[in-house]
Amino acid sequence: MKVAIVGAGNFGTAIANIVAKNGFPAYLWMRDPAQLADMRAHRENRRYLKGHPLDDNVVPSGDLAESVGASDVLFVTVPSASFRQVTRDVAAHAKPGAFAVSGTKGVESDGFRLMSQILDELLPECGTGVISGPNLAEEIAGAHFTGTVVASRSADLRSAVRRVLASPTLRVYSSDDVYGVELGGALKNVYAIICGMAAALEVGQNTVAMLITRSLAEMSRFAVSLGANPFTFLGLAGVGDLMVTCTSPLSRNFQLGFQVGKGSTLDEAMEQLGRLAEGVNTLRVIRAKTTELGVYMPLVEGLHRVLYEGYGIGQVVNDLMTSEQMVDVEFASPETWSTALGAA
What we know:
The protein is of the alpha/beta class. The chain contains 16 helices and ten strands. Helix 8 runs parallel beside helix 11 and helix 8 packs across helix 13. The relative contact order is 0.10.
């Protein structure tokens, strides 16, 4: 098999290196000619993943037709804001029967479209799926042990992705809950901003544990309202990804929240970060959807007030701590859940 990675950010580059080290030719496509020339000259992505040389099997490319047209597996790893347009360009060159996999953790605002739904729409002759999990690019590139989840309705796609990605340092698990896996990857970015703010405020470990646990409850509650399996959130794409993104300074969303917690405005924090934090766009999209669906999401609502409505952090924290207290674990057996609701 040949593989194309469409998008040469830090995650796309890390994926390309793993695929290449597994012995598969890996085209790493990028739009920027200057970045392409630099990568070819130095055999390293010095812009996004400095210090990690490209494997010999990685082919940096600016030719989308060549990269996509030759490949059996396509990983699309561009930011969500450009995902539709890039996928539309990919569609002009993709082979019928190829496998297209999203590695982008975000939601399209127009019509609340997940990346897998965009792949389904624009690549109807391809099998589609997503990968998600606790997958910080710098740690993957540094050969730290981790796992990821490939989700698809196609068993053949799941098998192909395991074949090209599984390595001594990366375990690849499977799921058929595409929306659950994908929503976990998108939603956790919102909560990472909150946890970054908490870190800046130097809260205690009890507070961090409560934030992460209640974040997991919120994101699973929201995903279930859209048809996802709540138990998906007990796995790598749920609690695994949430945990690492909410605690690691390597997370762009955590970094952005940290700057806001130190007193920066959202615009100042984004400028200091210098790179896209997907959680900023996701927050607005999720908040609008929760309002439409009537799903109880107090952390999302609180963060929206801080970033977009001029509320102070202290005021929002007070509102959260004095809000109605419901049951702890929502997704138990129906009998247990009914009894708990009655008691609440």
